[in-house]
Design brief:
Layout: H1 2-16, H2 19-26, E1 42-46, H3 51-62, E2 66-71, H4 74-88, E3 93-97, H5 103-116, E4 121-124, H6 142-163, E5 168-173, H7 197-218, E6 222-228, H8 235-240, H9 242-248, H10 255-267, E7 278-281, E8 284-285, H11 299-315
Parallel strand pairs: 1-2, 1-4, 2-3, 4-5, 5-6, 6-7
Antiparallel strand pairs: 7-8
Length: 323
């Protein structure tokens, strides 16, 4: 079954996820959707010093939004901020140095951010694909800590701030790779069996889809979405998937093409006319399962994921943190 899934997925990817796929899909885009001014609105983007995160930040800054860049590497983040300000002329670009694989750091940052800023849109873009099993200083497997737990804690911690705003949105950058994975709540930290970084990443990306669906059910006045940017030429793809990059480099999307749907979900009024909790590709909601792929999980597993992540998150919350 996994052979079938992977083959169907790759054929689909060659057709839809490449630059050609974007060019084909974009013929149906309405340019007016992005002709908006978002001055006065506040956007927080994780992993925004390069790739899709930086491309998204630029597009939002161009449209007047206040942009909060949340990055791990101070030097690269300073460079990105300078580039965004210079290219867009928007001075309202702020930098926060946070490691999304460090739960305590996320809680601390979120508490401080809530006291000092408002927030209209949260964009969970930070992610990693570590190809060997590495543990963080807290003993967490690094992909899980960054992609799943980090996303869960940051979003959960900032929900009260988002709840205060009309038209609040949360967008999570997932991956079409999640289509080859069925949710597995029995081994969140990939401790058993052979470690395959690509499949661990795909599992984390499936978990992000489930998170989005679950949040949409419980927080009705926030619009949640999760998306696949396609196969884009980013520093992360080059470093994490060198073989894939070498084979596909002439067909990959640009960073801006990868970011297009993130921007659309963040700023367009059309996006929120669609239900909350959907998975998007090229400005369209798309199925979260391949045909006949047996990747559906029982609802109990989805609820179990939320319970387990809540347990993990509470372990790292300092007593002084609010809710």
């Amino acid at each position: 079954m996994s052979w079938y899934r992977n083959t169907v997925w790759f054929v689909k990817g060659l057709r839809e996820y490449t630059r050609g796929g974007y060019e084909s899909a974009s013929k149906h885009f309405n340019p007016a959707d992005l002709e908006v001014n978002v001055a006065g609105k506040s956007f927080l983007i994780t992993g925004s010093n390069s790739g899709i995160g930086k491309a998204t930040a630029k597009e939002i800054a161009k449209r007047g939004g206040t942009v909060h860049l949340v990055c791990r590497n101070k030097e690269r983040a300073e460079d990105a901020k300078g580039e965004i300000v210079t290219e867009t002329g928007n001075q309202n670009v702020f930098l926060h140095i946070v490691d999304i694989s460090n739960p305590k750091e996320i809680w601390k940052f979120a508490e401080q951010f809530k006291n000092e800023h408002k927030l209209n849109v949260l964009i969970n873009n930070a992610g990693c694909m570590v190809n060997n099993r590495e543990l963080t200083e807290d003993g967490l497997e690094k992909n899980f800590a960054t992609n799943t737990l980090g996303t869960y804690i940051l979003t959960t911690a900032l929900l009260p701030l988002l709840e205060k705003e009309a038209d609040a949105r949360v967008i999570t950058v997932s991956s079409g790779g999640m289509l080859v994975q069925k949710l597995n709540v029995s081994d969140l930290q990939s401790g058993s069996g052979t470690f395959d970084g690509t499949m661990v990443y795909a599992q984390n990306k499936r978990q992000q889809v489930v998170l989005t669906e679950q949040w949409a059910k419980t927080h009705r006045n926030i619009h949640f979405s999760v998306m696949h940017p396609g196969w884009a030429d980013t520093p992360a793809v080059r470093s994490s998937m060198p073989d894939f990059y070498q084979k596909m480099k002439n067909s990959l999307r640009t960073e801006a093409q990868g970011a297009d749907t993130v921007v659309w979900l963040a700023v367009s009024s059309e996006a929120t006319k669609l239900p909350s909790g959907l998975f998007f590709q090229d400005r369209q909601p798309v199925p979260t399962h391949l045909p006949l792929a047996s990747t559906h999980s029982p609802p109990g597993d989805e609820e179990k994921l939320m319970e387990l992540l809540e347990e993990f998150s509470q372990k790292f919350k300092s007593p002084s943190s609010g809710t």
